[in-house]
């Protein structure tokens, strides 16, 4: 069984908003009010702490608990937007931490588009999310539509080119970028001989170049890699003492947003074998020897309650890195996105 250890691993991402999304005290740069709307900076420390943001206040990320306060005194709904355009019409995801003081409900949406939108009416802070939304043109921005005679308190806005939201990327008057997260496992914690490796992801890379999904190595002669190449070959590369034991299978297609689970097993008895579940269809690489035990172990595992549904947006998200002697688990690190 899994040990319960977990770490959030994410790929690169860009927040296209250009305001000070976590430091409203720094100014109202790149925030545009709609007709009759007025946005100011206020401290809302009591409500923030009640919602669990005390640590951000205490460590100085949100000095004194500043947030944006956007007031709509009008008799009709009006908007406030965080500047920063989509730049294209690919699917995007939007998020903001917000609360409503007033009646009705507010909407998180693109500027100039009534839909798609996510409505919220919570009086305490919560994370408002609009996933996998298509902007109608390349100049759409993140907007909060405020109901009549109401106020929205907000911070932590994010606009990213992704079918899913990722962890918050800070912006300081310009777009912000997060680099790939890298998990380094000490070689003493990994069994590089017999063992298994499992991961799952939602593909959001490009097939114009090879994508390394996982890599663990101690020099060029002892390593494990999982790669998707430009021919859509899914490759489990095992190199032990300078000898390659590679298992390969070809995917029929691979598109942005496809769900993939992969499971590679290496044994000194039967060599390497690779299983890939692509959008629910299971593929098995050519066998090299007696693999009955491996097949039974894989099918039981991939259908068990231990499997976590991939729901983030990067190649390295939700990787479960494990090693074992034969088919028993020796040490497990689980990567997921809460």
Q: Shape from CA axes? A: elongated
Kindly report the spatial arrangement of strands forming the biggest sheet: 1-24-23-14-20-21-22
What fraction of residues sit in β-strands? 35-45%
Number of strand elements: 24
Q: What helical percentage do the residues reach?
A: under 10%
Q: SS-based structural class?
A: mainly beta
The largest β sheet comes out as:
7 strands, mixed
- Rg, rounded, reads 24 Å
- Provide the low-confidence segments as ranges: 1-6, 287-338
Gap between N and C termini? 19 Å
Count of DSSP H/I helices: 3
Structural notes for this entry:
The protein is mostly beta strands and about 350 residues long. It has three helices and 24 strands. The strands form five sheets. Strands 1-24-23-14-20-21-22 form a seven-stranded mixed β-sheet, with helices on one face. A five-stranded antiparallel β-sheet has the order 3-6-11-8-9, with no helix packed on it. Strands 4-5-12-7-10 form a five-stranded antiparallel β-sheet, with no helix packed on it. The radius of gyration is 24 Å and the shape is elongated. About 40% of the residues are buried. The model is unreliable at about 1-5 and about 285-338 (pLDDT under 50).
SSE inventory with pairings:
Elements: E1 6-7, E2 13-15, E3 31-33, E4 38-43, H1 45-50, H2 54-58, E5 66-72, E6 78-82, E7 92-101, E8 106-110, E9 117-120, E10 126-133, E11 142-146, E12 150-160, E13 176-178, E14 195-202, E15 211-217, E16 223-228, E17 233-240, E18 243-244, E19 247-250, E20 259-267, E21 271-278, E22 281-284, H3 292-302, E23 319-325, E24 328-335
Parallel strand pairs: 1-24
Antiparallel strand pairs: 2-13, 3-6, 4-5, 5-12, 6-11, 7-10, 7-12, 8-9, 8-11, 14-20, 14-23, 15-16, 16-17, 17-18, 17-19, 20-21, 21-22, 23-24
């Amino acid at each position: 069984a899994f040990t319960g250890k977990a770490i959030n691993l994410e790929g690169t991402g860009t927040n296209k908003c250009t305001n000070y999304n976590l430091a409203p005290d720094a100014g109202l740069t790149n925030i545009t009010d709609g007709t009759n709307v007025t946005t100011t900076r206020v401290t809302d420390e009591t409500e923030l702490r009640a919602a669990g943001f005390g640590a951000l206040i205490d460590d100085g990320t949100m000095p004194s608990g500043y947030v944006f306060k956007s007031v709509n005194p009008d008799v009709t709904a009006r908007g406030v937007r965080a500047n920063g355009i989509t730049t294209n019409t690919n699917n995007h995801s939007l998020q903001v931490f917000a609360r409503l003081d007033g009646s009705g409900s507010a909407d998180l949406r693109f500027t100039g588009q009534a839909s798609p939108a996510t409505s919220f009416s919570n009086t305490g802070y919560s994370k408002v999310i609009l996933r996998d939304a298509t902007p109608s043109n390349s100049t759409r921005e993140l907007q909060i539509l405020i109901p009549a005679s109401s106020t929205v308190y907000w911070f932590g806005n994010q606009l990213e080119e992704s079918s899913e939201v990722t962890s918050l990327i800070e912006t300081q008057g310009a777009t912000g970028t997060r680099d790939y997260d890298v998990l380094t496992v000490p070689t003493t914690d990994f069994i590089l001989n017999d063992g298994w490796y499992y991961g799952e992801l939602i593909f959001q890379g490009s097939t114009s170049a090879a994508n390394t999904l996982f890599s663990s190595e101690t020099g060029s002669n002892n390593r494990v890699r999982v790669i998707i190449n430009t021919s859509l070959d899914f490759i489990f590369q095992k190199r032990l003492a300078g000898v390659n034991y590679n298992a390969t299978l070809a995917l029929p297609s691979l598109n942005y947003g496809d769900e993939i689970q992969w499971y590679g097993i290496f044994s000194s008895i039967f060599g390497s074998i690779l299983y890939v579940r692509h959008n629910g269809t299971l593929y098995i690489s050519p066998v090299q020897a007696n693999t009955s035990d491996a097949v039974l172990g894989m099918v039981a595992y991939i259908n068990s309650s231990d499997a976590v549904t991939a729901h983030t947006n990067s190649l390295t998200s939700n990787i479960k890195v494990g090693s074992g002697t034969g088919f028993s688990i020796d040490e497990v690190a689980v990567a997921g996105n809460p």
